[in-house]
Design a protein that fits this description.
Radius of gyration: 19 Å
Number of domains: 1
Structural class: alpha/beta
Strand order of the largest sheet: 3-4-2-1-5-6
Helix content: 40-55%
Oligomer: single chain
Number of strands: 6
Distance between the termini: 16 Å
Number of helices: 8
Length: about 240
């Protein structure tokens, strides 16, 4: 039993993906505007990034803004973009101090130019860091990711760089925005909803799913640790038979 317990303690997921849900409901329960929830959500991001780095997670991907979120009221979208710029300015020194690399996935060209410039700056500033890689999904959806990958594969086929006989799962994965990253071992969604909401839908095919009713602004280090512990209890067979 002691050996099994030790193995579980060292079974840290390489890649954790998180849907940060519940900011708006958190604010509504306090009779506040939705943006107060989003601002409080930034504090939760800081706590979870710290927790992931301390636990030894290699990649942490946060679903910050989906392609569907563009349909939200313009005033809320603009406020979210301003909040993102402010967060980058405030957190960049901390990321470098803690050896954390920052990168993004998604249709970044659809973001306001100021946001694009800030993202380029923090990516460049942290690119040599070797600790946790923090991946922020912006203007992202799983279907967009797959569609963009297939479109590029078609271009390469038309250019004679690719043959249909070459296409397999590994090749398609290399065209996705997450190319070079391991697939998520653990998928966390806060806020109580039990769906994946078009997030990393190719990549989470064998992820362990963890749903919690805790609203994102209330999700802290202890909650992240609980998700890791639950992951460590699970047996990942990937379609194989359990070894006796």
């Amino acid at each position: 039993m002691a050996e099994q317990h030790t193995q579980q303690e060292h079974n840290i997921p390489q890649h954790v993906a998180v849907i940060m849900d519940g900011n708006g409901r958190w604010a509504k329960r306090r009779s506040l505007q939705r943006m107060f929830g989003h601002r409080s959500g930034v504090e939760a991001v800081r706590a979870v990034v710290e927790a992931a780095a301390e636990q030894g997670v290699k990649f942490l991907t946060l679903y910050a803004f989906s392609t569907e979120n563009w349909a939200r009221p313009k005033i809320e979208v603009n406020a979210l973009m301003s909040l993102l710029v402010d967060a980058i300015d405030k957190e960049e020194p901390t990321l470098n101090r803690n050896n954390i690399k920052f990168t993004t996935i998604g249709n970044i060209l659809t973001l306001p130019q100021k946001v694009q410039d800030k993202l380029k700056g923090i990516i460049r500033s942290t690119e040599k860091n070797t600790g946790l890689t923090l991946v922020v999904a912006l203007s992202y959806s799983g279907r967009w990711d797959i569609t963009a990958a297939v479109r590029q594969m078609c271009r390469d086929t038309e250019a004679g760089k690719l043959r249909s006989a070459d296409v397999n799962e590994a090749l398609l994965a290399s065209y996705l925005s997450t190319s070079g990253m391991p697939d998520p071992d653990l998928f966390i969604r806060t806020g109580g909803d039990l769906r994946v909401s078009n997030f990393l839908i190719w990549q989470i095919a064998y992820s362990e799913l963890y749903f919690t009713p805790v609203l994102w602004p209330d999700f802290g280090k202890q909650h992240f640790a609980e998700a890791i512990k639950e992951f460590q209890k699970r047996e990942r067979r990937f379609g194989r038979v359990t070894e006796e």
